Amino acid sequence: MDWIGDQKPMKNILVIGGSYFVGRVFVEEISKASDYKIYVMNRGKVPLGIKGVTEIRCDRHDLEAVCESVPSVAWNAVIDFCAYTPEDIATMISALPSHAIGQYIFISTASVYEKTNELPISENALMVSGPQPGPHGDYAYNKHLAEEELKGQCSENNIPWTILRPAFIYGKYNYAPRESYFFDLIQKKENIIIPDNELALFTFVSVGDVAHAIIKCIGNEKAYKKEFNLSGEELISYPRYIEILRIVTGEYIRVESMSVQKIDDLGIPLPFPLDEHLIYSGTLITKEIEFSYTPFIEGMKETYAWYKQTRSRK
Questions:
Q1: Which residue, of 51, 110, 119, 250, has the greatest Cβ tally within 10 A?
Q2: What's the number of CA atoms in the CB half-sphere (13 Å) around residue 139?
Q3: CA 233, 238, 242: angle at the middle one, nearest 5?
Q4: 167 found inside a domain
Q5: Residues 38-95: tens digit of each pLDDT
Q6: Rounded to whole angstroms, how far apart are CA atoms 216 and 180?
Q7: Where in the chain does DSSP place strands (E)?
């Protein structure tokens, strides 16, 4: 920690990643606090330019470069947004003196759970046991392996750890074509195709809630050696999603229902599963620490306002 005069000691925070979506919102939010000294380490492709934030340009896979670039200070917390494999975790912990890491917070994913009919999916559900079907089938399994590597490394080095597993994240800076997919169609006044199966249900979490959850976990002993889902309780179907879009945009929306088979055949890029539930329980973190979720409709209003603002600049 660094002391400034008679003030409280500054807390050193090392952010790995942190320039695109969730990490960027987190850095924006935590930089508002006066008692944090924030360092962001990434490849520097998208500079943040946030006052008071030190940006370190470095590839996390280059062990020598990490050792040379990251300051030799005591880190109150390391926040890792971009570890995708166990090797990513092992490299980072080996690059930093273990005694200098006060807490390691890993942003994982709710995709690490095996498919199950026992809903909502809670933190004690079974983990994926291998790569999953599909073009990104290694993603969830590697995230699970990264979680296990983190637990093992932290146990060996006596480092408190926290794992956060967000459900579908929405909000500003989202580069995944999810809410923007629908907003774009609405602005173009084009039909929105949805599956005629109304039983696919999902849970969401706003990017702001993810950022605030991380901040709540920093230095919080109630979050040590804990895994938390991040997921609002509201169950959202495609029809309900359209209702919310009508409310937040104030626009007339033309909707066409279509069979799952036809949607697949036409290659319509709907952003959520067409015929399966993805429902997660995010209540554990609300019980363990002081945390609550933004109502989905309020979060979507904020997201649409940001979308309109950025669209007007183009």
A1: 110
A2: 10
A3: 100
A4: yes
A5: 999 999 888 898 999 999 999 999 999 999 999 999 999 999 999 999 999 999 999 9
A6: 29
A7: 11-16, 36-42, 53-57, 77-80, 104-107, 161-166, 168-170, 192-195, 201-202, 204-206, 226-230, 236-237, 255-258
How many other CB atoms are there within 10 angstroms of residue 175's CB atom?
A: 8
Domain of 153, in residue numbers: 11-171+204-231
User: How many structural domains does the chain have?
Assistant: 1
Strand partners, 169: 205
Q: How many alpha carbons fall within 13 Å on the CB side of residue 56?
A: 19
> Closest Cα to residue 129, out of 114, 118, 117, 151?
114
Secondary element (H or E) of residue 216: helix 207-217
In a domain, 66, yes or no: yes
Predicted TM-score (pTM) of the model is 0.94
- Please give the Cα distance from 167 to 112 (Å, whole number): 11
Residue 57 falls inside a structural domain: yes
135-173 per-position pLDDT tens digit: 677 999 999 999 999 999 999 999 999 999 999 999 999
